[in-house]
Structures are given as C-alpha cells and as structure tokens.
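User: Could you go from structure to sequence for me? I need the amino acid at each position, not a summary. Structure tokens:
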C-alpha cells in the first residue's frame, strides 16, 4: 500500500481546494428546505464550484451523472439528483461533493435535517458527526490507520446503530480516491503508521438500523437494506506533526 505524503506546496493546494469546497457547502446548507428538489441542490452546488474556477470531481467520475451526491432518508450515499425528488419536512438529506483546484481534490459530506425532524433523526446526525471527531482524535503521526477505525466503531457501538461496512473512507490528493482505504468499523490489525503530510477523507456512514446496504437499479444509489435512516459525515483531514488539521471545516 503506497500512501502519498504531500509536500508543503501540495498541502497548500489541498488547503485551498478544501477551503473552497467548505464555502460551497456553507451555501448549499442554506438552500436545504422543504420544497426544493434534489436537482436544484445539485445545480446550485455545481454553479458555486465553477464560480470558484474549479471543476466538480464527482461529475462523470466512473460514470456518475451529477456533481453533488444528494441522498435522502434511507439513501446512504451516491443518490442521483432528480427534478421530481422534492425534499419534505422531516426528511434528512446527505450532501457529498468534491472539487478539483489546480489538480488537487477535496471531498466532504454532511447530513442535514429538512425543516423540523424527529429526535431520533437528530440524534443519528449528531452521533454520526461525533464519531468522526472521536475517530480523528487518533489521526496523529505515530498512530496507526486502524486506530481511527477502532475509535469510530467504539463511538457508535453503544447506540446499536449499523456501521456501514461496504463503503469506507480513503486517501485523497491528485486523485479523488487514493490509498489507503479507511474502514469505519473495528479492525484486528493496526494498518499502516500515520505520517505527517498524509491527507485522508474520513467518512463514517451510519444506519439507524442494520449495517446492511443494497444498490438500486441505477447502479449508484446505495440504500439501507432495512429502509432505516442513514447519516454521513466526512472531512478531508491532514496528518501533521501534532493535532490533525481538518481542511474542510466551515
């Protein structure tokens, strides 16, 4: 497994790529409301990315037909935006997107409530986010990759939620998906040692019910097999000499 270690020049480009993406997300979040279509969110996101002089890295990636993955309720990831898919009060919606700035990729995801949502949905969103922050406490040089996985698992297990196993986090840089793969569930091995300059997309995907997922007939949209709600929280993270730096926070 060859994990790329970025130079200071590359880190500066990654920081800017991620800063611009965070700005896009801040504006997309404001647009999430009952009555908006998932395609309108996609169109807004793509417009914002291009306004920054960047390219949406999801568009046409392995054939994906949109710029923003918009996944509603039981959709875990890779929901394809549609004009006729209208967000309703009480839905939860996960937005996952990235962009390319001067050849360097960024990637992030957030789950938002649409209007007023149930307390159960609120807790799922909060706990998924918290599991990310519990995970990156271990994202330090000298620790091992699967220390992150084990910490995310330990954060979620007490709630009885399903930690999605079919989809994992990843390295990121001049390609959207680089080594290593980063599971969100406990591992028996330690994995590679973390070094300053590594950039990782860490992204817990958590189902309210069981962990099992299935792909819809569009070959992209991943849903919880039992129809339970799913939440997603992702940031691009830089390993440093000290505390990890979250590049996509806003």
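Assistant: Here is the amino acid at each position, in order:
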């Amino acid at each position: 497994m060859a994990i790329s270690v970025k130079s200071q020049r590359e880190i500066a480009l990654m920081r800017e790529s991620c800063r611009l993406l965070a700005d896009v997300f801040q504006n997309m979040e404001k647009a999430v409301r009952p009555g908006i279509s998932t395609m309108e969110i996609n169109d807004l996101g793509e417009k914002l990315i291009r306004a920054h002089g960047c390219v949406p890295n999801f568009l046409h990636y392995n054939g994906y037909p949109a710029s923003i993955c918009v996944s509603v309720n039981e959709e875990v990831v890779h929901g394809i935006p549609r004009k006729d898919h209208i967000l309703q009060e009480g839905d939860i919606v996960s937005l996952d997107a990235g962009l390319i700035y001067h050849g360097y990729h960024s990637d992030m995801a957030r789950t938002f409530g649409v209007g007023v949502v149930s307390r159960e949905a609120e807790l799922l969103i909060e706990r998924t986010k918290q599991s990310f922050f519990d995970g990156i406490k271990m994202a330090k040089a000298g620790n091992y990759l699967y220390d992150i996985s084990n910490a995310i698992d330990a954060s979620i297990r007490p709630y009885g939620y399903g930690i999605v196993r079919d989809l994992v986090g990843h390295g990121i840089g001049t390609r959207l998906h680089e080594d290593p793969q980063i599971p969100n569930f406990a591992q028996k091995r330690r994995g590679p040692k973390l070094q300053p300059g590594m950039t990782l997309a860490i992204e817990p995907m958590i189902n309210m019910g069981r962990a099992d997922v299935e792909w819809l007939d569009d070959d992209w949209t991943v849903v919880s097999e039992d129809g339970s709600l799913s939440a997603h929280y992702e940031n691009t993270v830089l390993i440093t000499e000290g505390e990890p730096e979250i590049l996509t926070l806003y």
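One structural detail worth keeping in mind: Residues 175 and 208 are 32 Å apart (CA to CA).
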